Amino acid sequence: MRALARVPVVLAVALLIGGCAGGAARTGGAAAPKPRSDGSDAVPYDSATVFLWRFEETGGTRVNGEGPNPVTGTTGTETRPDLGRVGGARRFTHSIDSFAWSAYAPGLETPREMTIEAWIRVDAFGQYEDTPIAGRWNPTNADQSWLLAVGGQNLTPPLAALPSPGYHNDLLPTGFQNRSVGRLMFAFQPERASLTRAYFSNERIEVDRWTHVAATFDSKVVRLYLNGRVDAQYAVGEGIRPTSAPLLVGNLFDSRDLTSFGGDLRVGDQADRNPYYAFQGVIDELRLSRVARTEFPYVR
Q: Which CATH fold topology does 2-259+278-289 show?
């Protein structure tokens, strides 16, 4: 299955290398954002918003959500409040218990159109295939819908602490592994029986700099945005598979390993607790929408 799953990814990367379908625009050099905004860069809530996590909480493990049926979340014990691009944000660390999680709800399904976006500031690129920003993507194929992530360094021992478990090897075709580092990645499982699709930005995300990232999907085109501008776009021709996968932010592990035994939500001791895919940095203003947005006027 893994060998076959590389085929559509190779096609996507070929588009990326030879010029993206539809004449994608590059981001160019954006001015460095201020460390803390006056609020004008806040992501708005509107009727197309499924949920919006502003990460303004100053303590505890609850994440409050905005939306028609507000999706709330729970953070792991190894995250903490921090200054964001807009007010407060959440800092994620190199730990298996660094995450934000929400149980599955039917309202999370966006099979025909969607936009997933956030302000992020990356401290370091991950050692392995990627580090997720957000996704509904358990390691098992039957429980995967979509994933937004930052490409990792694809290191092996002795440069990496341990060998990768290889959960996302299928998303990185042969010859592209060392070129994916720092690139925004959007992946999804097609609704029909088919192979995983994965798409990458042309430009790399900069470390220690606030960047607005977004991926949009309308069943025809995937577009990747950096700082409000189209960076890459790819033709697709199918919807996203509905699953029972929960929402997981800032990490990747099998959510069935989560336990609240002892109080806080954490990954149980029976699981592999090495933080292979832990996002290292700050995430702010995370929003999922049920439309494929084309403008981000609040990004300056």
A: Jelly Rolls (2.60.120)
Token readout for 262 is: 């002892």
Distances (CA, A) of 297 to 118, 249, 293: 14, 25, 11
Q: For the segment 173-231, what is each residue's pLDDT rounded down to a tens digit?
A: 766 667 899 999 999 999 887 789 999 999 999 999 999 999 999 999 999 999 999 99
Cα 39 to Cα 88, 118, 147, 153, 165, distances in angstroms: 11, 15, 28, 34, 40
Reference 84, options 212, 243, 202; nearest CA is 212
Two tokens, residue 216: 């949009």
> Which residues make beta-bridge pairs with 210?
121
Write down the domain spans for the chain. Answer: 2-259+278-289
Q: Are 65 and 71 in contact (CB under 8 A)?
A: yes
Neighbours of 134 (CB within 10 A): 25
Cα–Cα distance, 24 to 249 (Å, whole number): 28
Q: H or E element: which one contains 15?
A: helix 2-18
Evaluate whether 277 touches 251 at the Cβ level (below 8 Å).
yes
Which two structure tokens, joined as six digits, stand for 63? 């994440």
Question: For residue 282, what are the contacts with CB-CB under 8 A and spacing of at least 6?
Answer: 82, 83, 84, 89, 90, 91, 92, 120, 121, 123
What do you get for the CA distance between the two ends of the chain, in Å? 43
pTM of the model: 0.87
**Cα separation, 42 vs 86, whole angstroms:** 6
